[in-house]
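Input (structure):
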């Protein structure tokens, strides 16, 4: 299977090169064909990552890898991209593997109607603003991609995108439109409007997003569809004068969740960083996501949906990258402070402290969830080759035990090291 897929890619590369050469000879349009590759290998030591461990639980260790090959074509008003990848853990596949997991993670075409309007169709990454609601999730070995239609407008600092998606499990003949999302964790349909403006006279960016998300609330046994619609509205602002970088966001959710409960939830964030000199920088920030107690009525827990949660709520991914347990969703208050140091032009490091607490006061429990310390070092070894490593510790509380599991009296830590090789192999 892998050999056949590789042969198909090589053939595509050869045909693409011949086709482009012919196109260049046949007309005056500037055709561009490129090939890039990525090998990203990451080893992890987990002793309480994602979920707290219990006393006596042994740590785990593994090495995962992303092997990706991307092909692209561009000419006037038209562009295409195909990206195939194999992801997994070392040793997961047999030495003689006839059923390898080699899939297209990106496959899209985009064309411009004129100088301002364009359309992009197919499997693509959706990454907007600081990725709180829609993000590419590049930290994950597989990344995140959507099958969607995007229609966009851009002119003089203004950008407007309309995103539309409709998902089904198969090419059904009959049976309605029931969508089983138990494996995909996806929406049934989605409509999103995003507006962004870059001010010309000042380093200010401003965005507005409105999303209508249709989630399947029907019965999997009878396959009777019952789509529930939830709306997310919000704004993102970034201001970067001189050595400062200031940003903030606010989002509100309404409608109904997949369980048909009315939703009224919100989140807000504020962040500030300052470059003291060429070497040192400091940052502070806060995130607040509303939560829900176990009472009936309106559901008040905010969902960050398809954002890059690893980027914001601690590197150990206790929150929103992994679930709360026992029906809890108490929200989150995350207060952060950090420092960065640039050792040289190729080496930098940073350390961040997070203090976590719940939004709602749960019965007989304190709001405090604990503290996390994250350290990361990045080294650009050469062009297209970089090394990163990190180490994190979590100091949880008894409340953490209830809503996330584990035993806070047990030492919780996590370490990793990653080598990323990402060259552009061919460009013509």
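Output (sequence):
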């Amino acid at each position: 299977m892998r050999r056949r897929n590789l042969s198909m890619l090589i053939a595509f590369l050869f045909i693409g090169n011949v086709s482009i050469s012919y196109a260049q000879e046949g007309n005056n349009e500037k055709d561009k064909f490129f090939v890039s590759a990525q090998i990203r290998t990451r080893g992890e030591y987990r002793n309480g990552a994602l979920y707290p461990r219990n006393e006596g639980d042994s740590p785990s260790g593994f090495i995962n890898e992303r092997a990706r090959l991307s092909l692209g074509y561009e000419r006037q008003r038209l562009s295409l991209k195909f990206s195939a990848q194999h992801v997994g853990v070392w040793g997961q596949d047999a030495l003689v593997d006839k059923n390898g997991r080699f899939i297209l993670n990106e496959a899209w075409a985009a064309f411009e109607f004129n100088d301002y309007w364009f359309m992009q169709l197919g499997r693509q990454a959706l990454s907007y603003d600081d990725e709180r609601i829609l993000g590419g999730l590049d930290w994950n070995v597989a990344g995140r991609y959507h099958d969607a239609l995007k229609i966009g407008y851009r002119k003089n600092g203004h950008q407007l995108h309309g995103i539309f998606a409709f998902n089904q499990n198969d090419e059904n003949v009959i049976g309605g439109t029931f969508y089983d999302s138990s494996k995909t964790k996806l929406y049934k349909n989605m409509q999103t409007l995003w507006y962004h403006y870059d001010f010309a006279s000042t380093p200010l960016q401003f965005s507005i997003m409105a999303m209508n998300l249709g989630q399947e609330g029907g019965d999997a046994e009878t396959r009777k569809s019952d789509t529930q619609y939830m709306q997310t509205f919000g704004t993102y602002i970034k201001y970067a004068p001189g050595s400062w970088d200031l940003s903030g966001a606010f989002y509100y959710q309404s409608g109904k969740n997949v369980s048909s409960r009315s939703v009224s939830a919100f989140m807000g964030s504020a962040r500030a960083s300052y470059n003291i000199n060429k070497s040192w920088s400091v940052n502070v920030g806060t995130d607040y996501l509303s939560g829900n107690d176990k009472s009936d009525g309106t559901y008040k827990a905010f969902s960050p949906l398809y954002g890059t949660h690893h980027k914001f709520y601690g590197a150990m991914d206790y929150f929103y990258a992994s679930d709360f347990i026992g029906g809890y969703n108490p929200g989150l208050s995350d207060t952060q402070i950090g420092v960065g140091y640039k050792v040289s032009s190729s080496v930098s490091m940073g350390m961040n402290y997070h203090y976590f607490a719940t939004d709602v006061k749960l019965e007989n429990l304190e709001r405090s969830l604990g503290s996390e310390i994250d350290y990361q070092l990045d080294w650009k070894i050469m062009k297209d080759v970089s090394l990163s490593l990190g180490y994190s510790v979590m100091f949880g509380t008894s409340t953490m035990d209830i809503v996330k599991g584990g035993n806070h009296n047990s030492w919780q830590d996590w370490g990793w090291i990653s080598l990323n090789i990402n060259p552009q192999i061919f460009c013509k």
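Notes: The chain has one domain: 44-52+105-427. The two ends are 30 Å apart (CA to CA).
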